[in-house]
Structure formats: structure tokens, C-alpha cells
Design goal:
Layout (H helix, E strand, L loop, with lengths): L8 H30 L6 H34 L5 H7 L2 H4 L2 H12 L4 H8 L10 H25 L3 H9 L4 H29 L2 H7 L8 H10 L4 H24 L25 H30 L4 H34 L3 H8 L6 H12 L9 H38 L4 H9 L4 H16 L4 H5 L7 H10 L3 H26 L6
Helix pairs in contact: 1-12, 1-14, 1-16, 2-7, 2-9, 2-13, 5-13, 7-9, 9-12, 11-12, 12-16, 13-22, 14-17, 14-19, 14-21, 16-17, 17-19, 19-22, 21-22
Length: 520
């Protein structure tokens, strides 16, 4: 039906033009980086050490996240208990958390002065040391364990219940269920999950900046920042940026290669099978995995609230000014992302557009710091990049959130055309009138969710702004990092809690607004 609906021709033409501008905004900085890198000197030993560390920590982080997610998701799939739905919802929270906020929470639990170190001190044991490779991996597992768990949980729930019932009637043992159902699902899902998490970990700047722990624990992105900010060696920063693009592009290509379809076939859309009958002997193990995972996710946030709440009212004025800049930047970035995503989604929903899909997902394979470096190289001859720090940061944040908005808007746009297209044709609605009266009312929920997600991601970003900004232009994440560098720990924890409230608040406001009653 969507193919027979009349297209919103003006919006689709606008979408094609915007897609071209997005491609230019993503590729032009890469070209600038490549040209500058070509004239740069060869990488030195510290640069190669950063490359090795980047790959190593990403491999370890992805491997541990996937390995730990398997028993956690398996326990969630086959157990029903009070609070299960809340725990599954909690699995999505780390994606919305600003990275530096989560790092503060981890420090409050696992740091030298954290809860665990204090407990060890009462036993006469030395405190934990979180800085270095193990700290970076710990933070990445905190962020990506929930993601892998959700991916695997979807795989378990997608196993046709009819086949599991047939297996039960045939007397399958738990080992048979693993062999014929669970293991094939994991073989289909785990490689893609591993590579997606690997890709995320290669572009994690804030984690390495706060927990890296010196030259032996420096990622490529952190090396770019150091070459750019401290040495102002643009050639070396560009060369490292080219290496980062190569690493990310390789991971993205492999991730798409292993994004295989379901291998267990389809069912009759009956309710998901209850797995308890095949796991009666594993209740204690499942409960242990779920308890450990829940504590691992909840304790850092609880510690952050406990330590940050007393300091939040006494924060210096610079923190509140930075918070206001962050709010304005997040709202502007979210609006820009929606203005870009909606016309592109109109084209992608109308017919399969491989080129637009590629453009829409290209930012996943490009590091924000690489984009920032390229934009600096482009702007330097014609303007003062520092004066444009906030607009450039807003642009990069909008581009980074574009894939998530397209994923939410495109199916909803196609469904709206399929269900409302004939009526719109009968009423003669075309162009903007068709969009306003037939399409947009059905897009309120994904628009609200997408705007909230873009605002939350922009609110917590500590990347491009760290390259460009002067002290008077710092956002709240950057101000937090400066407070931490000045050993003003209490103020930094209060600022982290403020950032947490603002990020989740922006997401809630946008998402709740989109889920309000839709007028006819």
C-alpha cells in the first residue's frame, strides 16, 4: 500500500538535497584529514602504542561484554520474577547516560576512595586501582553489557515458541535445547554484537581521557586530542585521524558483514515460550547472574547520587553557566537532527535507497574527534575555529545522532503512508498539507523519542568541544573534567549529578511529549 500512496514530492526532493549536504559534511572533513595526513611525518612509537592499546582494549571490552551478556540474557529469557520488566528497562539506561557521568559513578564504587576500596580498607587490604587498561575495560563493559544483553534477549525471544513446544513434547533435555536452539541463535547474533561493541569502544574518548592512566593506556582518539590540544601538531593529529577512520571503517564493514538474519525460521506469532521447564536446576545460577548484573548497573548510579546530592546546591556559577550552554546546545542539536532526519526518512520510506541508507549510517564509522579535526582544518584558513566551537559541536552531535533518528523515523513514516496514504489521496492532500495532516500526527512518538535521544547524547558529549572551546565556552561535561583536574572532587560529583538529571530530564520531556494524545 505504501508503494501506491502519492509521494510527498517536495519533502522527498528536500530529503535528497539534505542527504547530499550530510554526505558533504561527513566526507569533507575526512578529505581534509587525508590531505593533511599525507603531508605529515610518519607515526612515532607512542602513536603505534596508542593504536595497539585501542585495538586491545576494544577487543577485551567487546569480548567481556558479550561473554557476560550470554548468561544474563539467558537468565532473563527463562525466568519470570517481580521487577523483571524494570530490570530490562534498566538495561537501556546506560545508553542515555553521559559517559563522563557513568565514569564518576564507577569511580565512586571502584576508585581508590570508592565504596569497595573503603570496604577493603576495613579488612586491611589495599584499595583498588581503576586507572589504566582494566579501568577502561570496566567502563566499557558497564556501557555495553546492557546493549549485548538486550541483543541476545531479543534473540531468545525470537525463537519460535512452536518449535520449543515441539521439543518439549519430544523430551528434549536442556543440553538438546542448547544444541538445537540456543547455540545456533548465539552463533548468528554474537559476531554482530561483538563487532558493534568493538566499534563503539574504539571511539570512546571520555573513558580514555578520565581512566586512561598515562602513556601506556592512551587510545588513538586521546592521542589525537593530545596532538591537537597540547602540541598543536595538526599533521600528526590528521595522521592519527586517518588511522582512526581506518580502524572504525574496518569494524563497521565487518559488523555489516556479520549482521546475519535469523536462522531459526518464523513461527505463528504466538507468545514467547516460557523456558523454566528446561532450566529447573539452574535457578541459583540464573539468580546469581541477574543479581550481579543488577548491582553492577545500579551501584555506580546510587553512589553518584549519594555523593553528588550534598554538593549540587553549592556548585560554583561557572557550572550553572556551563549547564545553560549545554542545554541550549542539546536543544539546538536535537532540532537540527530532526530537520535533517525527517526529509531523509521520507525518501527512505518511499522506496529502498541504498545510497541514503549508507549516508545515514556513515557517521557510525567516523569518530567525532576526526570530524572535529577535519572541520578545524577546513575552518582555520577562513575563520577562527575557537569562536565557532559551539556551532561546530552542535553540528557534529546532530550528525552523530542521525543514524538513530533514521532508524526510528523511517519505519514509522512508511507505516503512516501505508495506513493514511489512500485517505490523503482521496482528500487531495499533497505536499506540506499531506505531511502536516496525514503523516506528522503518526510520527509524534518516534519524533519525541528521537529528539530526546539526540538531546541526551548531545548533553553528555565530551569530544569536539574539548578540541575547540575556550574556558568561556565550556559545556557541562567539559566543566566537570576541569573540576576533576583541579581536584575539586565534591564540585565535580555535584556537576555529574546535575548533568545526569538534565540529560534524563531532556529525554523524558521529549519522549513524553511525543507520546501524548495525538489529535486527529
Amino acid at each position: 500500500m505504501a508503494e501506491r500512496a502519492q509521494p510527498v514530492t517536495g519533502l522527498q526532493s528536500l530529503g535528497a538535497g539534505i542527504a547530499t549536504l550530510v554526505a558533504l559534511a561527513l566526507l569533507a572533513p575526512l578529505v581534509a584529514v587525508a590531505l593533511r595526513a599525507e603531508a605529515a611525518s610518519a607515526l612515532n612509537s607512542s602513536d603505534w602504542a596508542a593504536i595497539r592499546f585501542t585495538v586491545l582494549q576494544a577487543l577485551l571490552s567487546a569480548g567481556l561484554s558479550v561473554a557476560l551478556a550470554i548468561p544474563v540474557s539467558r537468565a532473563l529469557a527463562r525466568r519470570r520474577f517481580p521487577g523483571r520488566r524494570l530490570l530490562i528497562t534498566l538495561m537501556g539506561a546506560p545508553f542515555l547516560l553521559p559517559v563522563i557521568v557513568a565514569v564518576f559513578g564507577l569511580l565512586a564504587v571502584f576508585g581508590r576512595n570508592g565504596w569497595i576500596s573503603q570496604a577493603l580498607g576495613t579488612l586491611g587490604l589495599p584499595p583498588l586501582e581503576i586507572y589504566g587498561l582494566h579501568g577502561v575495560v570496566l567502563a566499557h563493559v558497564f556501557f555495553n553489557l546492557p546493549l549485548a544483553t538486550r541483543l541476545f534477549l531479543q534473540g531468545w525471544q525470537a525463537i519460535p515458541s512452536e518449535r520449543v513446544r515441539l521439543a518439549a513434547s519430544l523430551g528434549f533435555t536442556p543440553r538438546d535445547i542448547w544444541r538445537h536452539f540456543e547455540a545456533p541463535m548465539l552463533r548468528a547474533t554474537a559476531p554482530g554484537a561483538f563487532l558493534v561493541i568493538f566499534l563503539i569502544c574504539t571511539t570512546s574518548f571520555a573513558v580514555a581521557l578520565t581512566l586512561g592512566g598515562g602513556p601506556r593506556a592512551t587510545t588513538v582518539e586521546l592521542a589525537i586530542y593530545q596532538a591537537f590540544r597540547f602540541d598543536f601538531d595538526l599533521g600528526r593529529a590528521a595522521m592519527l585521524g586517518a588511522v582512526q577512520v581506518l580502524i572504525c571503517a574496518s569494524g563497521a564493514i565487518l559488523a555489516f558483514r556479520f549482521a546475519v538474519p535469523r536462522v531459526l525460521g518464523s513461527g505463528l506469532d504466538r507468545p514467547a515460550m516460557q523456558w523454566e521447564a528446561f532450566a529447573k536446576r539452574a535457578r541459583v545460577a540464573d539468580a546469581a547472574f541477574l543479581t550481579i548484573a543488577a548491582l553492577f548497573l545500579i551501584l555506580p548510579m546510587a553512589a553518584l547520587v549519594a555523593k553528588g546530592l550534598p554538593a549540587i546546591l553549592g556548585l560554583p556559577s561557572s557550572v550553572w553557566q556551563a549547564a545553560l550552554r549545554s542545554i541550549l546546545l542539546a536543544v539546538s542539536s536535537a532540532m537540527l537532527a530532526l530537520l535533517v532526519a525527517l526529509p531523509m526518512a521520507a525518501v527512505m520510506a518511499r522506496r529502498h535507497q541504498t545510497g541514503l541508507e549508507l549516508i545515514g549510517t556513515l557517521s557510525i564509522a567516523i569518530s567525532p574527534l576526526v570530524l572535529g579535526t577535519g572541520l578545524f582544518l577546513i575552518l582555520q584558513p577562513i575563520a577562527n575555529p575557537v569562536a565557532l566551537a559551539l556551532p561546530v559541536t552542535g553540528l557534529v552531535n546532530a550528525l552523530m545522532s542521525l543514524p538513530f533518528l533514521l532508524r526510528a523515523l523511517t519505519p514509522a513514516f512508511a507505516e503512516a503512508e501505508a495506513t493514511q496514504g489512500r485517505l490523503a489521496d482521496a482528500l487531495g492532500l499533497q505536499g506540506m498539507h499531506r505531511l502536516r495532516h496525514a503523516i506528522l500526527p503518526r510520527l509524534r512518538a518516534p519524533l519525541g523519542f528521537g529528539a530526546g535521544l539526540a538531546a541526551a547524547l548531545s548533553m553528555g558529549d565530551l569530544g569536539v568541544i574539548a578540541l575547540f572551546s575556550s574556558p568561556a565556552q565550556g559545556t557541562l561535561p567539559l566543566e566537570m573534567y576541569r573540576l576533576m583536574g583541579s581536584y575539586r572532587t565534591d564540585d565535580a560529583q555535584g556537576a555529574a549529578l546535575l548533568l545526569l538529571f538534565l540529560s534524563l530530564g531532556l529525554f523524558w520531556i521529549c519522549d513524553r511529549g511525543g507520546r501524548g494524545r495525538v489529535g486527529a
